[in-house]
Amino acid sequence: MPWWDVYFNELYLRIFNTILGPERTAQEVAGVLALLSLQPGARVLDLCCGQGRHAVPLAQAGYQVTGLDRSAYMLEQARRTAQAAGVEVQWVQGDMRWLPWQGQFDACINLFTAFGYFDAEAENLQVLRQVCQVLRPGGQFLLDLSNRDYYLLRLWPRAWRRHGRAVILEESDFDPLTCRFTMTCTWLEGGQAESLTHSVRYYTAPELSDMLQRVGLSPTAIYGDFDGSKFDLYSKRMIVVARKQGNR
Description:
The strands form 2 sheets. A 7-stranded mixed β-sheet has the order 3-2-1-4-5-11-10, with helices on both faces. The protein has helices at 4-7, 10-16, 22-36, 55-60, 72-85, 121-134, 148-153, 205-215; strands at 43-47, 64-69, 90-93, 105-110, 135-146, 158-163, 166-175, 180-189, 192-201, 217-223, 237-244. It has 8 helices and 11 strands. It is of the alpha/beta class. The longest helix has 15 residues, at 22-36. It is 31% helix and 34% strand.
């Protein structure tokens, strides 16, 4: 079974909610809106929407939002969040390699390094091809990834941090032959240990630009963060914005 089919569960939320607070989410949503300059009421696809961390605030801002995710558990959390916020979001369980829409969206977003999951390069390229398919002509794609070079130059095989009575241990490895980062996160508390492992292909800016152009998406900008800052070796994030070409 692939790692992504077992990874996104209660433990995932417990670990990552320690770093994904409301302030960070608000900054990211504000950045998406500023970088894409979306028209009021635009149709937005949140690809790999997870627990609805971005989809719900976008719906609150008046956009028509669809969230797609593979994890039934995460989608249930998203539905509860949307209901509590009093907003309508279309939640769809599916696979980002096969999207059930054609030219329907003004924008597609893929955030928090939810790209590069698949071992086969052709499958990661297929995801971008599907993004192009679901966008209307002139529609925009915003892809938020970790900056490979930043993390590679600062790679610590082991790091830990405290959260209340718990200790979160992160064990990381980079394979230079496949350009994949593998991380195991372990929650240690009360003499018990619970772990999750993910493995993601990290791309450079030139690699991504080439892939996007191959599927009909023209890169228009690459930023170092959601504030629109310059992308360089010291940027933790790589925010790529692209536009659908012609009438594909």
